[in-house]
Design a protein that fits this description.
single chain, 168 residues, Glutaredoxin, 8 helices, 4 strands
Length: 168
Amino acid sequence: MAGHLDFYFFYGSIHSYLSVMRIGALASAAGVAVRWQPFNLREILIEQNNTAFTKNDVKMNYFWHDVERRARRHKIPFAGRAPYPADPELLALRVGGDHVEHILASLDKSPAPIIARAQSAEGERLAKEATHAARKLGIFGAPTFAIGAEIFWGDDRLEDALAFAAGR
């Protein structure tokens, strides 16, 4: 691998979905290793007094239309607008997926111990550490790609971040 990048994503971010669906193949083609970093963007947005966009129907309608348009462009399935807020208890953030029990069962994993670990003090600590790391980098949105202290925000910057990580 030529390099690596940290992929900061949040399940409640409508734009993170696009990067989640694209990053594996693009990173492999670029020779870049990806470290997945789920973090609590909601906490950071509140600290930065940056939550007004969620109450702006015009902007939210644009965001959803933009995600639909980009999904179509990249041939990514898109099922439409998701409920807001997504993952209100932040369980998916600590476990790594929405509809946690169903997903874990489909992977032949026993959901109960994984969910118990995610809800434990250790799960809470890991989520807080990832959020603190994002805060220290100056991350203000998701998805964000970090190569050291260099950050790239937004799914439309994924290719730029991978090129930077690969040394191009």
